[in-house]
């Protein structure tokens, strides 16, 4: 606080070798485990030329898979967004008993294997499931159909938005909202004019992560989908089918779209992070 | 161990933290580096401690250049502003750390370490707390653990960065007295950084006043208070009224007032900074001498045992602050909005050349409050 | 005596938002999850025991827990190293590297799975070099470890990084001024501060690896008793419509996950408590 310039750590000269050694190891590790797989996806996808690449993306089953993936995300993300906002408001702005339990419960889907996340819906809505008689009576199909895929996706992406918002809103405290209240603002006014502007970047970050997982989920969706081509195949499932048919180039072509999504997600995340830091900085 | 700082400079980007600093510190001295935020005092302390490297110049400990010496070989005890205690270690482990990390050959035995730590904890009055963690201690206790930890390596120099900054007023008072006593007992060359002039005046043998990366003045409390080297030092050491005056016909004019001083003719027509301490502002209910100006009491409040008075004086743009005793206030029945007369009984003038000129009122009025007893703020 | 379970607040909509939170949580998470235990409870316990202790199942536990543990350990070491490099050093491309660490969170597991298989299979970029030394990665337990290391990579980095950033630089200077070497400062002052974060990161990576399916199925080859992980076994039981068997295994896995979750919460609670008092 005395010194306006951040202190600079003294780097002893002998430390430079260690430093470059550590940086080198980190680079090598990240190259092997992150960059190389990413690069491989695009390399394998384009190996047989742009023509084959485009053809495998515009083929009807691929298009159906893309459509279903977008639809799933378009339903799951807004649902979890609303939940995330409600949960973070209740948890971050109020003090009550059982808060920690609630937080742990919200985290539960992170701790559950994707395969089990799918299995639970089979147990509920499958042919031998708890609700099977009811579903049969009204002739509704959930498992091996689109509703099952959406349910499983909602489950696995459940905590993302809430997880981003709760710590952010907790760190911001309640003073600004209380000030707004004392000035006569209504609940909606407080939310839209005070809370939302403060948390918008965190919210966006949560939505981005939630979306990435919703579009990319494999295990849970694989259990409930039934793998019906053109009907209940999402993009990751389509990748699997193509791969198992030894149609590698096509599999990597569809995979490259998902990899692009991942790259866009990472870039968006970096921008959002930068914005948050920037916002925090200017707020001070 | 004596310390010699030779033409030390340090910049951070375009910010000049230190500019050509020269300082000699004798063995066993207790020095305060005093200055406002950003004056470079902490940077100077950190360079002496080896935590930062200067751009140019050198630091000599016992006439030995420290430039190529690692911080860990300097044997300097450093107490950090927020103590920087190891929070996962107990008080005992914190104090013992400096002994335990020594190489095999130099490391004392476990028993020796134990007795040394206990001895140090006794010295800092923390016996019995060795099993506590820093989070279980009060601010003052943490401060003393930090000091004991620094003393464990038997440093030849002790450096303290804002040692009392984070403590409340009462604890600070106690620790100051205690630090003086401790220094007296151990006689280690000690430098501490502070922005609190009272703290510097009270504790240090010698004060180094810093501003904008330069040393404004170095000297004893007496020297600095009575013979300030410049306007900055004078202003920094206690509250003062700063009024713009100008020089004409060999005297200084402040609003309607004329202060009779010996000003050289050559500076005729130039502006001058006039500084008056609040206790040197005389207040009277009637005009009895020619050097008085009419004023109105705009605000009054109790400050300790004295009364602070804010005045709007005729012909002077700024609010004048004065200070009177309770008795005097009662004697003349001073109250808000009252019309009074004020005079400057003593003032310091800094002309364009920056040289100080002392002014003392030539009229002595019986109706003015009794002369100030002490010039230095109350030192307990 | 009425116990106060909520502190007074002037802010509105507490009941509404909390009510909705609990409703939504119950509907989409708690109710479905409880199905596993409901189903398990209706099963014959003797048959259940036979199912979960079948040799093929036991082999899958060993592989799942073993490979997850090794992968999490690898991530603990390299995660600490990467976090250290990102926090302490500046070098070109640092921002990009920092962003890239989250790739395993963003890249669908199936994509990661086929990419890693392509790299490590016998004619892959790395696989064919390893082949020269007689090392096989794809379709062996090593392949599983590679995949699990990939998906667990961000956990340790992201738990250690903020702690490392917040470390008071003065504490290290204090250690140095007391005569500690760089290594002593790291081992005795920095590392103890990082233990809780390292352990949390390890547990998170381990838990994630334990349940992982998508990236492993492609690289493992799925040979029973050799490269068959437990989630895969659940999947194949489901495909054979053996719901009881699948549920029994799921219950075992869920139990393990909950123990891990409890463990993570315990670490966080303990560190929170220890350093809570003023800091």
Write the layout of secondary structure elements.
The complex is a heterotrimer of chains A (284), B (380) and C (279).
Chain A: H1 15-46, H2 49-58, H3 60-93, H4 99-111, H5 114-125, H6 132-138, H7 146-156, H8 160-172, H9 175-182, H10 187-216, H11 219-225, H12 235-244, H13 248-283
Chain B: E1 3-12, E2 15-25, E3 30-34, H1 41-48, E4 56-61, E5 64-65, E6 76-79, H2 91-100, H3 110-123, H4 139-151, E7 157-161, H5 169-186, E8 189-194, H6 197-203, E9 206-211, E10 214-219, H7 221-226, H8 231-236, E11 241-248, E12 251-254, E13 257-259, E14 271-276, E15 281-284, E16 293-303, E17 306-313, E18 319-325, H9 326-332, E19 339-344, E20 346-350, E21 356-360
Helix pairs in contact in B: 2-3, 2-4, 3-4
Chain C: H1 14-41, H2 45-52, H3 55-88, H4 94-100, H5 103-106, H6 109-120, H7 127-132, H8 141-166, H9 169-177, H10 182-211, H11 214-220, H12 230-239, H13 243-276
Describe the structure in brief.
The complex is a heterotrimer of chains A (284), B (380) and C (279). With 284 residues, chain A is mainly alpha-helical. In chain A, 79% of the residues lie in helices and 0% in strands.
Protein traits:
heterotrimer; A: 284 residues; mainly alpha; MetI-like fold; 13 helices; globular; B: alpha+beta; Rossmann fold; OB fold (Dihydrolipoamide Acetyltransferase, E2P); 2 domains; six-stranded mixed beta sheet; elongated; disordered C terminus; MetI-like_sf (chain C); membrane (chain C)
Write up this protein.
The complex is a heterotrimer of chains A (284), B (380) and C (279). Chain A is built from 13 helices and no strands. With 284 residues, chain A is mostly helical. Chain A has two domains: 15-46; 49-283, MetI-like fold (Orthogonal Bundle), CATH 1.10.3720.10. Chain B is an alpha+beta fold. Chain B folds into two domains: 3-234, P-loop containing nucleotide triphosphate hydrolases (Rossmann fold, 3-Layer(aba) Sandwich); 240-360, OB fold (Dihydrolipoamide Acetyltransferase, E2P), CATH 2.40.50.100. Chain B is 23% helix and 34% strand. Chain B has a six-stranded mixed β-sheet with strand order 6-7-8-3-9-10, sandwiched between helices. In chain B, strands 13-12-11-14-20-21 form a six-stranded antiparallel β-sheet. In chain B, strand 7, helix 5 and strand 8 (189-194) form a beta-alpha-beta unit. Chain B is elongated and about 80 Å long. With 279 residues, chain C is mainly α. Chain C has one domain (45-276): MetI-like (MetI-like fold, Orthogonal Bundle). Helices cover 77% and strands 0% of the residues of chain C. Chain C contains 13 helices and no strands. Chain C has helices at 14-41, 45-52, 55-88, 94-100, 103-106, 109-120, 127-132, 141-166, 169-177, 182-211, 214-220, 230-239, 243-276. Chain C is globular. Chains A and C meet through helix 1, helix 3, helix 4, helix 5 and helix 7 of A and helix 1, helix 3, helix 4, helix 5 and helix 6 of C.
